[in-house]
Structure formats: C-alpha cells, structure tokens
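Worked example 2:
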Amino acid sequence: MTAMPGALPQGVAGYSLDDRARWVHEPQKSPRRSAFQRDRARVLHSSGLRRLGAKTQVVSPGSDDFVRTRLTHSLEVAQVGRELARYLGSDPDVVDAACLAHDLGHPPFGHNGEAVLDEIARDIGGFEGNAQTLRVLSRLEPKVLGPGGRPAGLNLTRATLDACIKYPWPRAAAPTPDTASATIRKFGVYADDREVFDFVRAGRDDGRRCIEAQLMDLADDISYSVHDVEDAINSGFLDLDAYRNDHALAGLLDITRQWYLPQIEDAPLLAALERLRAQPYWPHGEFDGSRRAQAALKHMTSQLIGRFAGAAEAATHAVYGWEPLGRYDGRLIVPDDTRIEIAVLKGLATVTVMVAQDRLRLQRIQARVIGQLCEYFAERPEAMDRMFFLDHWDAADDAGRLRVVVDQVATLTDHSAWAHYHTMQNDTGSLL
C-alpha cells in the first residue's frame, strides 16, 4: 500500500483475542467500548494516576505554578503517544493507556527517591520504577480480585500491559548502567510478580518490546526533553544563549555524554545543537516572561514535538510502508539525528536544573526522608495505609514485609511523604 507523505494508514492493526485477554477472566462487558478503551479508562480513573499530581517531575510540585508534575507530564506523553500510534496504525487506546501509566511506579522525589528505595530493597530484589509500575497495575491498584481474593490490580489486557513494560526482563538479566542518569539497573519485573509478567509476555523471552511500548518510550523521551527545557527557561534556570560560551558549551557536552549518550563524540552533539538553533522557532535573546515571550516558547515546544514525532513516523514508514503496525509487526525507527537532538535537549535541562548545587542539597535531604520513613514504617506498620497494613503485613515474612514498606513509601506523593515525616518526628523526636 502506498500513500502520500503525511497521509494516515488505512485503519488500525489487527489485535487477537489473546491480545485482549486479561489475567483474571471477566464477564463479557457491554460492546459500547472496546477492551482497550476500557483499559484506558481504568488507568485514567485510578488513584495512582491522581497521586502523580503531587509527585516531582523535575522541580518539586508547589515550588512553581508553571512547571510540570508527573501527572501533567503523563497527560502530555499520552497525547504525543496517541498521535504517534494514529499515524503508524497501532491502537491509540493501547498506547494512550501505556503513556498514562508509564510513571505510576515512580516514588516521591523523582529518580532520587527511586535510587534510595533501590538501595533499601537491595536484598529483596531491588526497586525500579518500571517494575513498580507493573506491580501497581497488576497488584497494588484496587480494582479487581482474582480467585481466593488475590489482587489483580486494574486487570488490564495483555496488549496494554505489554505496552507498559519498557524493560521486558528481570533484574538478573538487566544490563549494567552506563550513564550517570542510570544509577540503578533498569528492569521490568520483580521475582514475585513473575506470574503476571509471564502471562503478558506469553512465552516471549527475547527481550524485544512491542511497538506500542516503543511508542510510549519515544513519546516519553520527546515530552520530557522538550517540556523540561520549556520549564527551565520559564523558571529562569536556563538561558539558551549562554551555551554559545565555550566553557558553558563544554559543560553541556559533558553532561549530555555522561547522562544520555556515553559513547558519542563532540561533533554530532554540536551538529545537533546547531540544527536546533537554526530553526526559525528557536528562541534567542533574554526570556522576559512577557506574553509574547511565553507564546514564542510554547510555539517552540509544539514545533519540536512535531519535528521529532514526524521524523520517527517518516523513517518507520520508509521501512514498513503504510500497513498498520501492531505489537510485533515491526519496530519503531528513530533516526540517529533525532535521537541526538533529543539527548541535547535533555542535557540542557539536566545541566541547569538537575545537577545544580541547590538541587543536589535538596536531594540529600529528600534521601534521608525516604530512608527514615522506611525505618519508621518497618517499626510501626500500623502507621501505614490500611490497604498495606491490613491486607499484606501479617501474611508476609521478613522479606515480604520490607517489600510492603517499600510499596507503601513508593505510593506516597512528595506532599504525603513530608506529612508522614512530620508525623514520625512527633512520634519519635527524630530530626534530619
């Protein structure tokens, strides 16, 4: 099948009954909605998604009315992912649901909280935000119970759960981190969630991701690279013209290499930055916060999203034609130039916000809050939410109880983590 550039594929890829199967069988529902539309609605109405409104994306919620939270980030990822799916013929509701769900497992205080919980849980299989997302979707989120009252989380379809698994392997098979941003091993399942993982993967053990998971991952990359730069400029942390200075530019190249592209040379990074600067929508001069400046900044974000998404769509169509792509029909093709441009934008946000000295001091305080809360809940489990204490504590062994504590802390928002910390101070007199 051929089509003019920019045309839509003819329809959506076919999805089988196995793709629509749920871990716990449910009676036939009304035909008003598809199984995948129902999946999306379950994620959208989940308590886990609501909590993302008070979880850190890059800057802590409440510190600035403009910046993204994990919730607003997830909504933006879902919009980008849905459009990518529409142009490539994957089911938009599967990709939309996966994008909405992709950060459900992330704890308070962003990746800093994730690293602390991984160290605390090192003897019970560690902690990883993506593995925790599968646990939330298939166990922790209260919606469906299986035989004998076993929790089944939202009980999403196989295709949607598969689209949520960014790293389809256990911790033992995880590659060694090779960048400063990947301080923990990336994996998609804990040992005691292996049963649902095996159901989702249905015998596939090659580590290959379905195309819907690839679309979710690219939508995430596009969204946070572009929007973190927008947030940093608007908050006064980032002056794009500063990176014409050789010293500042060298720092940007080093951070981009350390955090995102460890093997890359300076030349392709510099070429990517120059391509971005050459675009007519790239802002120049001081950002003064005026309506005109904010409109120009928003125009830049829209154009960059279109640039990156369009490049991936065109490259994928060039390989596979215009037939709709679903699950394992093909893979998403992202041009190298696009990946490097995205990495440079990530570097700009990282060098100005995430590794700033005041940010690092705050991260050290937050790490101690997470650690002390884990100790507190382990000693006083009755202080945990009733769902964790009543439903899991008594039946667990020592390792299981530590996992319950980690599950509880990971569920907290930034705000509720601080609230529990202050309650702990009143109970124990402990101080940071």
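The chain is about 55% helix and 0% strand. Confidence is low (pLDDT under 50) at residues 1-5.
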